Amino acid sequence: MPSPKKRSHAEPSAVLAQLAERPQIDFELEFFESLLARVPDFPEVLRAQASNLTAKGLFKEGLKVDQRLVQLRPKDPTVHYNLACRYAQLRQADLALRTLRRAVELGYRDFRYMVQDRDLDSIRKDPRFRDLLREYGPR
């Protein structure tokens, strides 16, 4: 009787050691990517993936994910807000401000956070940002 073929597997302890050395964000990026390969329109996973991509400095990749989220959830003010942040990080002021206005029109109201959110630093001094705050912000 022929002997069964041996599979080449790394030792479980070696695999665990590799995982332990790997940054959590890299694990999550790979994990969420595998989920999205199976369920491409999973909003909660898309949101987490966009956040992780941005945290890694992959703003263009995060932008694509946020754009997809806006397609899936066109009435969600938070996804519009996040898309505005991505545009601001990429120094696309017109798109950032237009998208931020849309987020506010849809109901985004965390103005205290908005004025300190580092993602919006590139548009904070823009007069259109201040106009938006005056128009919609707390009185």
Descriptive overview:
- There is one protein chain.
- 68% of the residues lie in helices and 0% in strands.
- The model has no long low-confidence stretch (mean pLDDT 89).
- The protein starts with 11 loop residues before the first helix and ends with a helix.
- The chain has 2 domains: 22-73, no CATH class; 75-139, no CATH class.
- With 139 residues, the protein is mostly helical.
- It contains 8 helices and no strands.
Structural class call reads: mainly alpha
Basic shape: elongated
Helix content: 55-70%
- Please, what is the average pLDDT? 89
- Sequence of secondary-structure elements: HHHHHHHH
Strand content: under 5%
Number of separate helices? 8
Strand element count:
0
Could you give the distance between the termini? 85 Å
> Any low-confidence stretches, pLDDT <50, length ≥5?
none
Number of domains: 2
Notable traits:
2 domains, 139 residues, 0% strand, 8 helices
